[in-house]
Amino acid sequence: MRLTGVVSQCPARESYPRPTDSVINVNRRRIGVVMVLLPEGKSVLELAQMCASILLPIISVCAVLVAVWAIIANRRTQREQIARNAYIKYIELALQNPEFAFPDWSKINLDAQSFQLTDNPDDGKRHFEKYEWFLSIMLNTSNFVFTSVPANHPLGKQMRLQFAYHWRYIEKFKMSKII
User: Fold this and answer.
1) Interatomic CA distance for residues 112 and 22, integer angstroms
2) How deeply is 165 buried, as exposed, middle or buried, from its count of CB atoms within 10 A (0-12, 13-18, 19+)?
3) Full-prediction pTM beyond 0.70?
4) What is the pLDDT along the chain (179 residues), one digit of tens a residue?
5) DSSP letter string, 6-59
C-alpha cells in the first residue's frame, strides 16, 4: 500500500507502528494533518483521473438539461413578447379607430352590412368593410395571443375582453363567412 500525504509535527518516526495492507494506525493527536490513503499502486493523478471520468458524464448530462431548459424558457419568453407586441399594435389601431374598437351597435345594421358613422348613407358600406378589416386584425391578433400565452395570462384575458365588444358580429357571421 502506498501512502500519500503530508505529515507534520512528528516527533520521532520510530514511535509509530508500520503500516499494514489495509490499515494505518495514526496517533491523530500528534499528527496535524490526516494522511490520505490511496488504493495500492495508484497515484493522486490516477485517482483524479478516475473521479473525472465518473463525474464528467454526469456534469455533461446536467449541462445539456440546463441548456434545453434555457432554450425552452427563452422560446416561451420570446413568443410571449411577440404576442405582446402584436397586442400593442392592435391597441394602437384601436386607439386610431375607437369607433371600431368599441362600436355603437345602434349604428350597425348587420343584415344590411352597414355601419353608419356619418349622415351620408353611402359611407355605411365602406365603414362596415373597414370594421370587418379591423375585426380581421383583432381575430388574427387574438389567435396569435391565445397560441402564445397560457389561458390565465393577463394578455389572454384582455383579448377575451375584446371579443366581448364584438360578439354580435362574430355570432352573426361566424358560419356564414366561411368558404
Assistant:
1) 99
2) middle
3) no
4) 455 554 555 555 555 555 554 444 444 444 434 345 556 677 778 888 888 888 999 999 999 999 999 999 999 899 889 889 999 999 999 999 999 988 888 888 888 888 888 777 778 888 999 999 999 999 999 988 988 888 888 888 888 888 888 888 888 877 665 54
5) ---S-S-GGGSPPP-SS-----TTT-SSPPEE--TT--HHHHHHHHHHHHHHHH
